[in-house]
Every structure is written in C-alpha cells, then in structure tokens.
Design goal:
By secondary structure, this protein is an alpha/beta fold. The chain is 54% helix and 17% strand. The protein has eleven helices and eight strands. An eight-stranded parallel β-barrel has the order 1-2-3-4-5-6-7-8, surrounded by seven helices. Bound molecules: erythose-4-phosphate (E4P). The site of erythose-4-phosphate has 11 residues, from α7.
Length: 216
C-alpha cells in the first residue's frame, strides 16, 4: 500500500520525506489555506520535495471551469494529480480531463455508487473519506471494502485511496481492506513508528550489550 501525507505544510513534508517511505501528497483547499500561500506556489514547492503523485484540488464547481483549472494545475508539474469533488459537474470534468490524459483524484466520496461513477468517468484515484463517515456513526472502512470489491469485480484500474484517516488503526484496516493508498495527517504518520515494547526492548538490548563490554 502506498503511503501519502495529507498536508500542505512544507516542514511536515520535508521531515517525513527523510524516511524515504512517503509515496505522495494530498492537499485540499483547507490544507492550502492553512499555509497562507497560493495553491500553485504551494503545489510547486511540494513537487520539489516529493517525487510522487501530488494531488491539487480545484475550487471551481462548474465543469468547464473545473476543466480549465484542472489543466492549469496539471501544467505545474508532471506529478500533479488534479483533485475534483464528486459532484455532478465534477464527474463531467473527470471524464474530460481523463480523456486528455490528465490524472484525476475524485474526492469527497461517501458511497459506493459515487465511486462507480468516478471509475466509469476514468478517475485515476477515488478518495473515500473514512473518518468523516465514522464521525456520523457510519462504518467508513466498509466503504473502502465495498469499493475495492466493486473495482476488482469489474476490473476498473482506479486506485482506492483511504482518506480522512484519524489513527494507526485506520491505516491497518485500510491495508487489510485492500486500499491501494492511505493518506495520513503527519501526526498519524508519526504514530505509525511507535510501540512502547520496541523502546523497552531496545533499551534492554543496549543495556545488556554495554554490561557485556564491562565484563569482557
Ligand atoms: C483527502 O485527500 C482529504 O484531504 C483528507 O483526507 C480529509 O481529511 P479530514 O476529514 O481529516 O479533513
């Protein structure tokens, strides 16, 4: 499973990139706004740090404008994947952009029928939002499982990206459910490294090693 970071913060991206296990980045208008830079500038800067798929979202809501904005975003860098919301106009834009060879991440997906429409329109990635469904007492991970099954059954090449991830258990369950990608806030990426038994175990190994040196 590919690991993406769900952030537009350059410090977080640089720090995580040091481990060599981050395959891409997702952004959205809220994350870009938090950085106080223009969408284009921030996406360009992110592309300079991570060599992988970088999702950049349109803010237009009418198909023609989405297509125009999508083309502009795609022209920033070869690695840009244009993010389009799963609304009626969005599906029209996905069809057009995909037919031009522009890769599209269809975002704000909350149901399997929506995901089917995105795949039929030629989406490169579908982004079901797990955490936001869990917040409404709906099982977000079931949606990942349903979409993976439907895409496998009909051979759609669209990758399933588990979005709106809230903790390490979401990462585990998304991997078990067959998601191709999980996009994580920096905090969840950090949490993936940690286990108290690893720290305790290493402390004991090193203490025993140093004791053996004194006895030698
Ligand atoms: C995905 O691409 C979205 O940017 C993101 O995962 C949304 O997560 P949130 O529900 O934590 O805002």
């Amino acid at each position: 499973m590919k690991i993406f970071l769900d952030t537009a913060n350059l410090d977080q991206i640089r720090k995580a990139a040091e481990y060599g296990v981050v395959d891409g980045i997702t952004t959205n208008p809220s994350l870009i706004a938090a950085e106080g830079a223009s969408n284009a500038d921030q996406i360009r800067a992110i592309c300079d740090i991570i060599d992988g798929d970088i999702s950049a979202e349109v803010v237009a809501t009418e198909a023609t404008d989405m297509v125009r904005e999508g083309r502009e975003l795609a022209s920033i860098h070869d690695n840009v994947v244009v993010k389009i919301p799963l609304i009626r106009e969005g599906i029209k834009a996905v069809k057009q952009l995909s037919s031009e060879g522009i890769r599209v991440n269809v975002t704000l997906c909350f149901s399997a029928p929506q995901a089917l429409l995105a795949a039929k329109a030629g989406a490169y990635i579908i982004s079901p939002f797990i955490g936001r469904l869990d917040d409404l007492a709906s099982e977000g991970m079931d949606l990942i499982r349903d979409i993976v099954t439907i895409y496998d059954t009909y051979g759609y090449p669209t990758q399933v990206l588990a979005a709106s991830i809230r903790g390490p258990l979401h990462v585990r369950d998304a991997a078990l459910a067959g998601a191709h990608i999980a996009t994580l806030p920096a905090k969840v990426f950090d949490q993936m490294f940690s286990h108290p038994l690893t720290d305790i175990g290493l402390e004991k190994f090193l203490a025993d090693y140093h004791k053996s040196l004194q006895n030698a």
